[in-house]
Amino acid sequence: MRSYGQLCSVAKALDVLGDRWTLLILRELLIQGPCRYTDLANGLPGIASNLLSERLRNLETSGLVWREAAPPPVATTLFHLTERGRAAEPVLVALARWGTPLIADAAPDDAIRAHWVPFSASVFLRGRDPGGVPVTVQLHTPLGSSVIEITTDGVTSRAGAADEPDITLEGMPQVILRLLAGELTVAEAEEQGLVLRGDPALLDAFHLAPA
What we know:
Elements: H1 9-17, H2 22-32, H3 37-43, H4 49-61, E1 65-69, E2 77-81, H5 83-86, H6 89-99, H7 116-122, E3 135-141, E4 144-151, E5 154-159, E6 167-170, H8 173-180, H9 186-191, E7 195-198, H10 201-204
Parallel strand pairs: 3-6
Antiparallel strand pairs: 1-2, 3-4, 4-5, 6-7
Helix pairs in contact: 7-8
């Protein structure tokens, strides 16, 4: 692991996080939870197997990841984030917000995975004020369905379907993300194929980006 050799907190952070693929490995462990090696490889299209192994070793050495020899029926190695690794979540959230405008210029053949969508969408919403009722947002994309839950504890996301969502957004992932990022109005998103069911004011109430 190379070092910038600078007595600066930004440089010291980049000594640990600045190598190619490192932050994306943390992204996968943050979104998916404990992962098998094959789970990580699937969530990191394009990474070479030897490079993934090297990056995982570096993250273990830095105290961000630990491995568990899981017993049957899993019977495989699981990789977990440590508390220090999980503390990098605000960095990933900030990068997700900063990078969303670049989605509009993405290449048509850019890889995408279903579990990236709800995480990227959720970073533009804030939790309810104490005493408020929870709000459930259902996302439907060609990649699959996912749920964003807004509560007094914050905003969480998961794969699957909600029994009674308060609002449903159905369309291409790029359109949903740009809507929640404040780059598209509801009308503009609908012109690009978005189908919205429910009251859009529910989203406005928890939106972090300017409308």
